[in-house]
Amino acid sequence: MNYHVMTLFPEMIEQVMGTSIMGRATEKGLITLNTVNIRDFSENKHNRVDDYPYGGGAGMVMAAGPVYRTWKHVMEGIKARNPEGTKEKAPRVIYLTPQGKVFNQKMAEEFAKEEDLVFLCGHYEGIDERALELCVTDFVSIGDYVLTGGELPVCVMMDAISRLVPGVLNNEDSAEFESLQDNLLEYPQYTRPVSFMDKEVPDVLLSGHHANIEKWRREQSIIRTYKNRPDLLPDAVLSKKEKQFLDKLIQSEGKNEE
Ligand code: SAM
To answer: Coil, strand, or helix at residue 201?
Structure first.
């Protein structure tokens, strides 16, 4: 996976991506990070990249020129690495914006299949619409709140995507069942000691009976999802028996509320 990030603050992204699991994945060459400073493509003698908004209003807007030239530079770099004809489609260019589609695990899975991903981080009041029209293929938000820049959102996205790239997690199993896979939240986890502050690890997890453990975990996932994120359940991937379990759960909770 090759990430290309167009930003005014490359050091912010390099710092985060150089640490822990992401740092190791980069050292191993499983992911590469190419940060490009949009300011380097300013043609203003003071290196300015922002200007006042037409029509008035508060704040500044990132000008189209520097963003467009940065994008061209990145795309040419990718093309040079993939000589004519070897790459069928142009890489996706993702603008981080609170106006985009809200990022989720399914999107992370889809993006993880790409060879190159190009990200564009905004600042101030955002970016001149014409640059977005010319360069961007996807508009993505990390949630319904407004941040000062796209740098934290891009790190969130790259972290979620990278852990789905084969070999990035030490133990591949640890990405096997996680929250939001099958549209369910993960079951509760326990480690040693067996007893802590008079609270015990559930017996089934100590039984060594794999089928029972699996059944218990799936049921716990269904219970958690029902309690914390019922909005996920209509799209949850459940077996016939698990659907029956959920129906009983809904009925018994309904009775408790009466
Ligand atoms: N005026 C813009 C609007 O109302 O849509 C918000 C601009 S915001 C202050 C500056 C930059 O932060 C945006 O261009 C975007 O790159 C980034 N940003 C802010 N909130 C975000 C979010 N929830 N998800 C992704 N990017 C975000």
So the answer is: coil
Count of C-beta atoms within a 10 Å radius of residue 181: 16
Q: Which residue's alpha carbon is nearest to atom 23 within ligand 1?
A: 98
Instruction: Convert the pLDDT of each residue in 153-177 to its tens digit.
Output: 999 999 999 999 999 997 654 666 6
CATH number of 127's domain: 3.40.1280.10
Check which CATH number belongs to the domain holding 227 and give it.
1.10.1270.20
Per-residue pLDDT at 144 exceeds 80: yes
Ligand 1 cavity residues, CB under 6 Å: 96-99, 121-123, 125-126, 141-143, 145-150, 153
Residue nearest atom 13 of ligand 1, based on CA coordinates = 122
Phi and psi at 182, nearest 5°, equal 60, 15
Residue bearing the CA closest to ligand 1, atom 12: 149
Domain final residue, candidates 114, 139, 162: 162
Atom 1, ligand 1: which residue's CA is nearest? 125
Phi, psi of 102 (to 5 degrees): -75, 125
Domain that holds residue 80: 2-162
pLDDT per residue as tens digits for the range 13-72 = 999 999 999 999 999 999 999 999 999 999 999 999 999 999 999 999 999 999 999 999
Residues near 32 by Cβ (< 8 Å), separated by ≥ 6?
1, 2, 3, 26
* Residue of 60, 62, 97 to mutate, ligand 1, most atoms within 8 A of C-beta: 97
Q: 123 CA to middle of ligand 1, Å?
A: 7
pLDDT digits (tens, 9 = 90+) for 211-249: 999 999 999 999 999 999 999 999 999 999 999 999 999
